[in-house]
Amino acid sequence: MDIQFLGTGAGQPSKARNVSSLALKLLDEINEVWLFDCGEGTQNRILETTIRPRKVSKIFITHLHGDHIFGLPGFLSSRAFQANEEQTDLDIYGPQGIKSFVLTSLRVSGSRLPYRIHFHEFDHNSLGKILETDKFTVYAEELDHTIFCVGYRVMQKDLEGTLDAEKLKAAGVPFGPLFGKIKNGQDVVLEDGTEIKAADYISAPRPGKIITILGDTRKTNVSVRLAVNADVLVHESTYGKGDEKIARNHGHSTNMQAAQVAAEAGVKRLLLNHISARFLSKDISQLKKDAASVFENVHVVKDLEEVEL
Ligand SMILES: [Zn+2]
């Protein structure tokens, strides 16, 4: 599982940073890629990665500001032009209005898609658990931005323990149906009377990962709630230390506020994105350094950077 950042800039594209989008690559887990936001030019960024658009099965939108959604019509149309590939349906989750934006763009441009889009819109009253599969649960909560905007908490379900086949063989268990029984947690007795306790041969279940991806927001307790004990928190950092007032006025956060959220939530690592083009490379190291005084395991991400979880 890893996250690849497709656009890490704020508001408008710059040479170094495109507007918002990131891919949560779940190829080993479910052979799917989930996109979070889809700013203009996201499909061009995808061309520079190994991500195949057909693998993108779900798109989660945090809010309807242009720098987070203007890439949708282009991406969705290009996704249709993959010759000889199976056309798989796609789910889009986002605030009320996303369906009308997508359908209007496709209709007025005469675009017809050979696959179906299932829209899952929500508003203030229909947040909480928005998706549950056998492997993942996704929650959305309302943040504090200038328009309705959400953050997502993606929770992988705990992974079953694995059977230690070598240890079983060493204990004299013949390979065959007994392995299956033990794997299912059943204790067995061998022909020679040896008792085999399943628990001794199955590793403990591993806790699933928690990934928190927030949209644009002022500092709010909702962010902390969404990020509690997360393996990774992706948080905007539109402004730097000392800019708290201007950040508040524009519905955004500083690096320091993001670090405070990470510390309060007890996350393992913090990734800062949504970086203003005003920041030059020396400012970026300062952004990280300042944030690290509050929360040590912090990193400012770049476009196309991949972070393994
Ligand atoms: Zn915004």
TrEMBL record:
<keyword id="KW-0819">tRNA processing</keyword>
<dbReference type="GO" id="GO:0042781">
    <property type="term" value="F:3'-tRNA processing endoribonuclease activity"/>
</dbReference>
<protein>
    <recommendedName>
        <fullName>Ribonuclease Z</fullName>
        <ecNumber>3.1.26.11</ecNumber>
    </recommendedName>
</protein>
<feature type="binding site">
    <location>
        <position position="274"/>
    </location>
    <ligand>
        <name>Zn(2+) 2</name>
    </ligand>
</feature>
<keyword id="KW-0378">Hydrolase</keyword>
<feature type="binding site">
    <location>
        <position position="65"/>
    </location>
    <ligand>
        <name>Zn(2+) 1</name>
    </ligand>
</feature>
<dbReference type="InterPro" id="IPR036866">
    <property type="entry name" value="RibonucZ/Hydroxyglut_hydro"/>
</dbReference>
<feature type="active site" description="Proton acceptor">
    <location>
        <position position="67"/>
    </location>
</feature>
<feature type="binding site">
    <location>
        <position position="145"/>
    </location>
    <ligand>
        <name>Zn(2+) 1</name>
    </ligand>
</feature>
<dbReference type="InterPro" id="IPR013471">
    <property type="entry name" value="RNase_Z/BN"/>
</dbReference>
<feature type="binding site">
    <location>
        <position position="67"/>
    </location>
    <ligand>
        <name>Zn(2+) 2</name>
    </ligand>
</feature>
<dbReference type="GO" id="GO:0008270">
    <property type="term" value="F:zinc ion binding"/>
</dbReference>
<keyword id="KW-0479">Metal-binding</keyword>
<keyword id="KW-0255">Endonuclease</keyword>
<feature type="binding site">
    <location>
        <position position="63"/>
    </location>
    <ligand>
        <name>Zn(2+) 1</name>
    </ligand>
</feature>
<feature type="binding site">
    <location>
        <position position="216"/>
    </location>
    <ligand>
        <name>Zn(2+) 1</name>
    </ligand>
</feature>
<comment type="function">
    <text>Zinc phosphodiesterase, which displays some tRNA 3'-processing endonuclease activity. Probably involved in tRNA maturation, by removing a 3'-trailer from precursor tRNA.</text>
</comment>
<comment type="similarity">
    <text>Belongs to the RNase Z family.</text>
</comment>
<feature type="binding site">
    <location>
        <position position="68"/>
    </location>
    <ligand>
        <name>Zn(2+) 2</name>
    </ligand>
</feature>
<feature type="binding site">
    <location>
        <position position="216"/>
    </location>
    <ligand>
        <name>Zn(2+) 2</name>
    </ligand>
</feature>
<keyword id="KW-0540">Nuclease</keyword>
<comment type="subunit">
    <text>Homodimer.</text>
</comment>
<keyword id="KW-0862">Zinc</keyword>
<dbReference type="GO" id="GO:0042802">
    <property type="term" value="F:identical protein binding"/>
</dbReference>
<dbReference type="Pfam" id="PF23023">
    <property type="entry name" value="Anti-Pycsar_Apyc1"/>
</dbReference>
